[in-house]
Each structure stands twice: as structure tokens, then as C-alpha cells.
Amino acid sequence: MTEGTYHESEPRQPRSSSAVTGIVVAAVGCLGCLGVVVAAFLFLGVGAFRLFNDAEPAASEFVDELDDGRFDEARDRTTGVAAKNFDVAVARWLTQVESLGEEEGRSTPGMHMHTGNDGTTARISYASHRERGDATINLVLRQVDDAWLVEGLAIGVVPGSSAPVIGEQEGEDGR
């Protein structure tokens, strides 16, 4: 028989122990990395989900209070710029409700959480579906102790809605 060929009657050579060890080390390394990724996802994902579960109901309740005309209760949920400009925000809210009508439904197209040196904030966007068009409601909430307070508030009409732009009324253009 020539060298380099294998015949069925010859015993197979076992793999070297270093090749087997390399395969085992690679498999353990891959499983270890996967375990770290899964643990990090569960730790960070569950934590963020818990924070959103706390922030979103507070934001929704704030919008409900505005919609129901409970402005004093809504004011108690504000801090920072939102507290300072609350009366302006309420005036804009009332104009929106007047021009767009009652809310028929609300969806949450966006939520974002940020934790930094200055604390934890949540940005929550709502699409408010109303009788004569849609409005957007963008809130920034800040976690203060165990409560979520509205720190920023922006209200707008969705482009293409049939409602007039705030401040625009028939006859303002001189016609």
C-alpha cells in the first residue's frame, strides 16, 4: 500500500488531544458569550420595561387630565419648563380640542428612555385621533423620587388634518 492512502482494514488514527481541546474551548467560549448577552438583555431589558411600565401610565393620566379639564391635577404632575409654561400649554390644548373635537382614540407611536448623570427621563409620543383630525402629543417625563413628572410638553396638529392651524381663522387674510 502506498503512503498517504487509507485502507478499510487499517485502524483510524485518533484526533490529537490538542484539536479536541481546541473544539471544546471554542464551544465553551461561544456558549459563555451567548450567556453573557442573554443575561445583559434580560437585566437591561427587564429594567427598561419596568421603567416604561411606570412612566407610560403617568403620561397617559396626565393627558387624560388635560382632556377632562382637570388642569389643577395636571399641573401637579409637572416640573421644570412644563410647570413654568403650563398656562401656555393649557391654552394651546384648549385650542386643539376646540378645533379637532373630542378624542376618539390614542396610540403610542414612540417611547424612549434615557438615564444619565442628571437622572432618568422618558420621551413618550402619542397620536391623538380626534373627530376632525389628529394631534400629536409629545411628553418628556422625569423620574423624581418614585414619581414621574412631566418636564416637557409639545402639542401639534398632524399635517393634512382638516382642522385649522392654531390662530388661523376665516377672514384673517383680509378677504
Mind explaining what this structure looks like?
The protein is of the alpha+beta class and 175 residues long. 44% of the residues lie in helices and 28% in strands. The protein has four helices and four strands; from the N terminus they run ααααββββ. The chain has helices at 17-67, 71-76, 80-84, 86-100, and strands at residues 103-116, 119-130, 133-144, 147-157. Residues 45-50 and 162-175 have low confidence and may be disordered.
Strand line-up across the major sheet: 1-2-3-4
* Beta-strand content: 25-35%
For the largest beta-sheet, the strand count, sense and barrel status come to: 4 strands, antiparallel
Total DSSP helices? 4
Helix content: 40-55%
Number of strands: 4
How much is the average pLDDT?
75
Structural class assignment:
alpha+beta
Q: Terminal Cα separation, in Å?
A: 107 Å
Low-confidence stretches: 45-50, 162-175
Helix and strand run: HHHHEEEE
* Shape summary: elongated
Give me the Rg, rounded: 30 Å
Write the layout of secondary structure elements.
Elements: H1 17-67, H2 71-76, H3 80-84, H4 86-100, E1 103-116, E2 119-130, E3 133-144, E4 147-157
Antiparallel strand pairs: 1-2, 2-3, 3-4
Notable traits:
alpha+beta; four-stranded antiparallel β-sheet; 4 strands; 175 residues; disordered C terminus
Quick recap:
44% of the residues lie in helices and 28% in strands.
